[in-house]
Amino acid sequence: MAAVTPDEAETWLIEKIAHRLGVDPSEVSREVYFDELDLDSTEALILAGELENWLGFELSTTTLWYHPTVKDLAAYLAEESTQRAAAA
Amino acid sequence: MRPPRELRPPVVRRFRDAAPGGHTVWFVHPGALAPTVYRALAGALPEGDGLTVLDLGAVPEYAEAALTGGRAATTVAGLAERLLAAMDPQPDPYTLAGWSFGGVLAVAMADALPAERRPARLVLLDSIAPTEEYKQPDDALEPGLLLDWFSMYLGAKRGRPVRLAPGALDGRSVDEGLPVVLDAAVASGALLPDTPLPGLRKLYDTYVDGLLRNNRLTAPHRATPAPLPVVLVKAERSLIPGDDTLGWLPLAPHGLTVHRCPGDHYTMLDHPDAVDTIARLLRGA
């Protein structure tokens, strides 16, 4: 797919997390650590699979470790997808 | 940017402390389910008994292998040594138990200990023996079988059994079978109605990599016979339902007793009736 912007990635992540948690997107903070959210490991893996499918590339398992909030992860995903789009 | 946090869980998880001089059950847990699943068993033990879990999911070289393709940079002997170090000094008296692949570790640990430090009892829950006859090459695991185990796992993980029609997965590839599992899991309430297939695929691939990791650790392991009698508890819906001993006979020269309990390979750990049976066997009452 084409490169995503940080805002697009952030919106995607917040919408999906909110849906999985059954809360309004406004209740999902961009700054909260992923492990502070009430997502169990099953939901987290399902979300990771959905994210990879949306982006069109696999993510390293350490991605969420090094980018542990919505804001940080969205910035990383934007940068990564831009590099991949440019190399394609 | 917020920095990564150190969230490594501890290997040793105490769910109930024994009374002074009391008996402790040490459980080797190979991951897949959260270690908190042992709370029910801890609660079913006699008053004064303790239960502590040795969580392989907290050993990085083991746990991370399920997320990176299923190849662990360690061995059964290495893991046994790691867990023995974590439980040092061994209390007295104690039972050493292991569920699933944890049973293979429990036997390796008992074997690695000098006689005077060995457990009073060795109890294995639905563990498959690491003998040549029972070792499986990666490609021997048929997609239909793996998907069936995955459904069992998913149901246990979410507390909602995923029921498939008999033969629903027969002859199906992963791509063909996973939508069948998805429909059944949504129907049972184990997954949200709009769970995307790529998301379930990620969960399935991680599950299979965990199985392959255990298979690959078992393949080069040369198991020696257990140094004390072995108590094996088989779930009603075991991973290998048609096999009574799960291959342990040649590795149990001091005796093998086999018991059955309700539940499947995963739910046996917290199924109320199974827990009572297992608690009794852990103490030898």
Topology:
The complex is a heterodimer of chains A (88) and B (285).
Chain A: H1 6-21, H2 41-55, H3 63-66, H4 70-87
Helix pairs in contact in A: 1-4
Chain B: E1 12-16, E2 24-29, H1 39-44, E3 50-55, H2 60-63, H3 76-86, E4 94-99, H4 101-112, E5 121-125, H5 143-158, H6 174-188, H7 197-218, E6 230-237, E7 256-264, H8 272-283
Parallel strand pairs in B: 2-3, 2-4, 4-5, 5-6, 6-7
Antiparallel strand pairs in B: 1-3
Helix pairs in contact in B: 3-4, 5-6
Explain this structure.
The complex is a heterodimer of chains A (88) and B (285). Chain A is an all-alpha fold. Chain A has one domain: Non-ribosomal Peptide Synthetase Peptidyl Carrier Protein, Chain A, CATH 1.10.1200.10. Chain A is built from four helices and no strands. In chain A, helix 1 packs across helix 4. Chain B is an alpha/beta fold and 285 residues long. Chain B has eight helices and seven strands. Chain B starts with 11 loop residues before the first strand and ends with a helix. The mean pLDDT of chain B is 92. The interface between A and B is medium-sized, with 24 and 24 residues.
